[in-house]
Specification:
single chain, alpha/beta, seven-stranded mixed beta sheet, six-stranded mixed beta sheet, 16 helices, 25 strands, globular, binds nicotinamide-adenine-dinucleotide, oxidoreductase, Ald_DH/histidinol_DH, Acyl-CoA reductase-like NAD-dependent aldehyde dehydrogenase
């Protein structure tokens, strides 16, 4: 296939110590709606360049850690204003390289800015030194920066999942080396460059590449914290790579989030039906916290499925990300498309019923890009791969359950525990929610619709370690440092 570059083609370079660094080779990033079209080029960062970026961050840390919190907040607020001013250009680039519809790309910037602003508003209180005079003397508790942070982000929310790390890491006095995903490197790199333009050289560095560069970032002794969002399998490599130097880490990993519809759920509530459809198909189902398996009480199951299909056929409109009618775009890459398609075909072979959902707005584009027909999967077994694996695409299994104990067991036997949702009468839903092993449980909504950046976000079990967002998401970039001045300097039980 002949690859064409067009007038909008952009080129990003690695950013090391405030300088764009040329690389010997560049990789073309294709447009998922038309893989023959190049959106831009990003570099292959060499191991030596990755080391240089880490060393630049380590050098910059010496002065940056001494800056006041006020100064850091001031610079971050200036960066926020610059991102706002560039929002339309960023959205354009993000939609082209990622495939997400324009409204969804704006949504990603919205969430990023909301978090960056929250982090600026809360940083002072979260990082303030505490001094206590007490019976046994005096204690100073400070929240010190950790050092050089390796921030590794995935392709599905490349900007939000980079800024979720950059903002608190820098506000807390750390320096950073960011590596965006090669499947969506351009818009994240542009946003990182905008932020970097407000900060001293070396405070933010950006490198590109995949596992090889990632391996350097996660094993280099100068890196003291890893902030990673991505797949659970990748995290296993990272944990091993980091083990020689025992690095601090926050890991935000995969999920297989369940939506549970209790007997008390009203299937005639059209707004709720639209919310669950959005929770299944937003960003073409490629969100860690999307509802990936739906369990419905058997007494309302048939009526639920009927109303669900009606709601999905209204909301799911597959097309060009730049067509304002489009709600669902292509998958981001061919590997992901093939994986999801394989899971649906496997379910069909096992006897499941696969129902196509929504409208295809442009058949020619659909055949040209990494598009998949959105589907509903019925009559599958509780333990079929499409139910127990993280499908990360535009398909969803809906299964009946008979009692609450059964569905809690089905929920909790997963290796994952990122988010979940319970739908029905609020008080009944909360009783069930309390029994679910998940970092966040939403009532009568799901996925990003129920996300609140003021509270910690992260997973139980193999969905991760640690939390982002909330005050915890700022403190996670610090080490608690206690300075104790005891009144009793010599302990009485220690012999002379
Ligand atoms: P991925 O694990 O393939 O890649 C994530 C990042 O890790 C990329 O930048 C990649 O280049 C890098 N990487 C790959 N191998 C590496 C290695 N050996 N060492 C260091 N870095 C390495 O994930 P993906 O396909 O980009 O993203 C999808 C996954 O991310 C899904 O599982 C999804 O659930 C998860 N995710 C989780 C959250 C969350 O908050 N929990 C949010 C979004 C996505």
């Amino acid at each position: 296939m002949a690859i064409q570059a067009d007038k909008d083609t952009i080129v990003v370079e690695a950013l090391i110590n405030g300088q764009n660094v040329k690389s010997l080779s560049q990789v073309a990033k294709e447009n998922p709606t038309n893989p023959a079209e190049i959106v831009g080029y990003f570099p292959v960062t060499t191991k030596e360049q990755a080391v240089e970026a880490i060393e630049a961050a380590a050098e910059a840390f010496k002065a940056w850690k001494r800056t006041s919190i006020d100064e850091r907040i001031h610079l971050m607020r200036k960066a926020i204003e610059k991102i706002k001013a560039a929002e339309n250009d960023i959205v354009h680039l993000l939609s082209r390289e990622h495939g997400k519809p324009v409204y969804d790309a704006h949504g990603e910037i919205f969430v990023s800015l909301m978090w960056m602003e929250f982090a600026c508003n809360e940083a002072k209180a979260a990082l303030q030194e505490e001094i206590q005079e007490h019976e046994q003397g005096k204690t100073i508790l400070s929240h010190d920066p950790i050092g050089v942070v390796a921030a590794i982000s995935p392709w599905n929310y490349p900007i939000a999942l980079s800024t979720i790390k950059i903002a608190p890491a820098l506000l807390a006095g750390n320096t950073i080396v960011l590596k965006p995903s090669p499947y969506a490197p351009l818009a994240a790199a542009k946003v990182a460059e905008i932020i970097a333009s407000e900060f001293p050289p070396g405070v933010i560095n950006v490198v590109h590449g995949n596992a090889d560069v990632g391996a350097e970032l996660t094993s280099n002794p100068l890196v003291t914290k890893i902030a990673f969002t991505g797949g659970t399998e990748t995290a296993k490599h990272i944990i091993k790579a980091a083990s020689d130097t025992i690095k601090d880490m926050t890991l935000e990993l995969g999920g297989n989030d369940a939506a549970i519809f209790l007997e008390s759920f009203d299937v005639n509530d059209e707004r709720a039906m639209r919310r669950i459809v959005v929770s299944n198909f937003l960003t073409t189902g490629q969100i860690c916290m999307i509802a990936k398996r739906v369990y419905v009480h058997r007494s309302i199951y048939d009526a639920f499925v009927e109303k669900y299909i009606e709601a999905a056929n209204r909301w799911v409109r597959v097309g060009d990300p730049f067509d304002h009618n489009t709600t669902v775009g292509p998958l981001n890459n061919l590997k992901q498309k093939n994986y999801v398609q394989g899971l649906v075909e496997d379910a069909q072979k096992r006897g499941a019923k696969v129902i196509p959902l929504g409208q295809i707005l442009d058949q020619e584009l659909f055949e040209q890009g990494y598009y998949l027909q959105p589907t509903l999967v019925l009559d599958c077994d509780y333990h079929d791969p499409i139910v127990v694996e993280e499908q990360f695409g535009p398909t969803v299994p809906i299964l009946p359950f008979d009692d609450v104990e059964q569905v809690i067991k089905l929920h909790n036997e997963s290796i994952y525990g990122l988010t979940s949702s319970v739908w029905g009468k609020e008080e009944e839903a909360i009783v069930v929610a309390r029994q679910l092993e998940a970092g966040t449980t939403m009532i009568n909504t799901a996925a990003v619709q129920g996300l609140d950046v003021r509270f910690p976000f992260g997973g139980f079990k193999q969905s991760g370690i640690g939390r982002e967002y909330g005050v915890e998401g700022i403190r996670t970039y610090t080490e608690s440092h206690v300075i104790n001045v005891p009144k009793m300097l010599d302990l009485p039980y220690i012999p002379e």
